[in-house]
Amino acid sequence: MTRDPKTIIDSKSNADMFMDMAKELESNSEEQEPSIKTVRVNHQPKISDQGPTLGPKYLDALSVMTGLANIRSIEVELPILKCKVEVTPLTSEEEMVLKSASVSPSTFLEKLDEIIYEHTVFHDNRVKNYGEFLEELYPPDKSFLIWALLNSSYLILPTMEATCKKCSTKYIVDSTPEELLHSDTISELWPHAAPPRDYIETEILFDNNMTFTLGMPSELVRVKALNLMKASEINSNVEENNDTFSYIDNLVVLTREIRIIKQSGEEIVLRDLEQDIYPFLRNLQPKVIDVIRNQLNLDLFEEYMPNFYLDTNCTKCKTKNEIQLNPEIAFFRKALFI
Ligand SMILES: [Zn+2]
C-alpha cells in the first residue's frame, strides 16, 4: 500500500490533545452527569419471561440511557484472523482502572489487552480464552479492535492542533472516532490460511555472517518485550517515535532467530526473546545498530496495518491535510497524561 506523506502532529500537541480528553472525562464525572457514552451494552438487563422490572433499578436506568444515547457495539472485520467481531463500549469503571494502571506503561498496556478481550465478541468461538487471544492477536487486528473500542466508547475525539503542510498555519481540529476510518483505511487481508506465526522472512547481513529470521509479532511477544522495558523508556518512545517501541525494540519483537558465524566457523543461534535476543540487541554498539538499520527493513508487514487518519482543511489556504492517528497510542497517551 502506498501512502501519501501525512501531516505530522508533534508530540506536544498530541500530549495536549490527550490532556484535554482527560479533563473532559474528569469534568464529566465531577458534574455527576449520566455517563451515557460509557454504558456497557451487554450489561443490559435481559428481558426474560418474568419481565424487565425484576432487575436492579440501576440496570434498568442504564438500559434506558443506552437506548436514548443510541449506544451500540461496533462491528469490525479483522484482517489477520479474517473474521467479523463486535466490540462493546468501555464502562466508566474500566476507564478508571485504565487511569490508575497508567503509572506503569506495561501494566496499562496489559490491562488494555484484558479490556479489549472482554469487549470483543467472537461469533464463531474462534478465540476460546485470554491466553489464546494474546497468541492470536497481531498488530493489524489489535489496531482495528482499539479503534472499535474508541468508537463505541466515545462520541468525540479531543480537540487537537494540526499544522498545514503548505502554509504552516496551525489550526484546531474537532473530530469523531468514526472520522478516522476511510475507504483506504482497510488494510490487505492476510493472504494465507495459516496464521502469521508460520511465516518468516530471512535477512542476511555482514557478509553472510549474521542472519535474522523475522516474523510478525503476536501480542504475547509484545507483552514479553514490554515487561523487559523500563517505564521511562516506553514513555520516551511514545514521546519521540509515537510508538511504544523504539527501532531496536521493534527489531526485538520481530526477531524469531539470529544466527551469527564466529571466525572459527562455529555458529551461535539466539532464539529466546528474554534470555538472548533482547539482551543481545539492546547491548549492541551504536555503529553495529546503524549497519543493521541501513540494511534491515522492519516494515515487512506494513501492508496489513490499517491506516487511520483524519481529513482536515487548512483554515487559511484550504489545503487538505491528512493527520494520522494510531488508536493504540491514542489510548496510551490518554492515560499517561492524566
Ligand atoms: Zn494552509
Please write the string of helix (H) and strand (E) elements. Answer: HHEEHHEHHEEEEHHHEEHHEEH
Based on helices, strands and strand pairing, what is the structural class? alpha+beta
Distance between the termini: 36 Å
Helical segment count:
12
Please give the number of β-strands.
Answer: 11
Name the helicity range. 40-55%
Radius of gyration: 22 Å
How many domains? The number is 2
Biggest sheet strand line-up: 6-7-8-9
Bound molecules: zinc ion
- Average pLDDT metric: 82
Q: Sheet bearing the most strands, described?
A: 4 strands, antiparallel
Taking pLDDT < 50 over at least 5 consecutive residues as the criterion, the unreliable ranges are 1-12, 24-50
DSSP strand (E) fraction? 15-25%
User: What is the 3D form?
Assistant: globular
